[in-house]
Amino acid sequence: MWIELNDNDVSGEPTACRVCGGPVRRCLDLGRQPVSNAFLLPEQIADEAFFRLEVGICTRCTLVQQLDVVAHERMFRPDYPYRSSTSARLRRHFADVARTLHTTELTGPDDLVVEVGSNDGIMLRTLSDAGVRHLGVDPCVGAGDTAAQGGVRIRIDYFNERSAAEIRRTDGPAKVIFSANTISHIADLGSVFGGVDALLTADGVFVFEDRYLADIIAHTTFDQIYDEHVYLLAVRSVSEVAAVFGFELIDAQRLGVHGGSMRYTVARAGARPRTARVDQLIGEERALGLGDPATFAGFGARLDVIGKDLVALLTELRSAGMRVAGYGATSKSATVTNYCGIGTDLVPVIYDTTPEKQGRLTPGAHIPVESAARFTDPYPDYALLFAWNHAEEIIEREREFRDRGGRWILYVPDVHLL
Ligand code: TMP
Ligand code: ZN
């Protein structure tokens, strides 16, 4: 049974850009999709909610955006299962981020840093240990509890004008507002920039990281498109968005994490010099056609090939009697399994290290999630790596799987065996 999200759950199909009001051209339809982190118990299947995952591009400011948006309360529930710290690479990445912020921006003895979407404290932990005044703002209680146990000061809340004004009253202004993989989740960017405006010092910076549209297009990582990723950001669109709210994009830096990300540094308009890198990257994006709806036609055609190739391979392996398992019950896997129609007949189980996901079924496809400790027991013949962004780490840790003849199946940037 499927339940359409009702009018309260989706904010409706925009005819105008959510930020600049310009015309939005629809360019990609990934069909009926579940809430990507809503891992289910069997008795919850009857109430499962779905929405239409469609993407459009604003022909004025080039902001790539979903046409329907799932309500925050459905996505970021108290039991939201995602934990950043499962990845050693991300732990290293965010410790580096913390050290860089500490040495470049948080140089005064009382400087305050606020993180939007602090999850389990993966970044703030380092600053907390260094004695830096900090606050993490995150609506998800479970992740917040983990952060607090690690010594991080947490406010369980959404970040917006209201919470930001309250924080300013109690803690004073923030020298740095940081966020990773969260700003693109928030449909109302006016509330984000309103909060930044309320909280940031006159010369402070708003630094945020997100998956980069150019990398998504280049590697056809269509599974980066799911309910939480309301926006697929690029340097040009972030620059335009910041300007709408009285801010300026002053720097942008490419990052390797999550299959290719960008770190954006935003300041109050005119408060800080803008690096040459910003215009250079905008020029590169123009050459790639990132602002052009036609670019998405090619992307759609390529993702169809990947989907068909993957289903063909899994079907062939099943016919040959091979044992196939999934690895990494990622949010991304919701898009792949539901778009391609991959269910338990093709992938009977997905192994994952996150206790909050184990013993549950994946959204929409209803594939059981089991502890990664059981991957060895016995090894499957083939393992479909949904957590391809952690490939190096996972393949290294599970090297015995390959030593014993197991093969990894990857679908980025095309379907191939390892
Ligand atoms: P992500 O792609 O959204 O970061 O999610 C990664 C998922 O993969 C998450 O559910 C945890 C899981 N995972 C493992 O099972 N083993 C690992 O070694 C790593 C790094 C992640
Ligand atoms: Zn726009």
UniProtKB/TrEMBL annotation:
Residues 17-76 form the Methyltransferase putative zinc binding domain. Transmembrane segments: none annotated. Gene3D superfamilies: 6.10.250.3100, Methyltransferase, zinc-binding domain, NAD(P)-binding Rossmann-like Domain, Vaccinia Virus protein VP39. Residues 257-413 form the C-methyltransferase domain. Pfam families: Methyltransf_13, Methyltransf_14, Methyltransf_23. InterPro entries: Methyltransf_Zn-bd_dom_put (IPR013630), Methyltransf_Zn-bd_dom_put_sf (IPR038576), MeTrfase_14 (IPR013691), SAM-dependent_MTases_sf (IPR029063). This is NDP-hexose 3-C-methyltransferase. It comes from Actinoplanes auranticolor. The lineage of its organism: Bacteria, Bacillati, Actinomycetota, Actinomycetes, Micromonosporales.
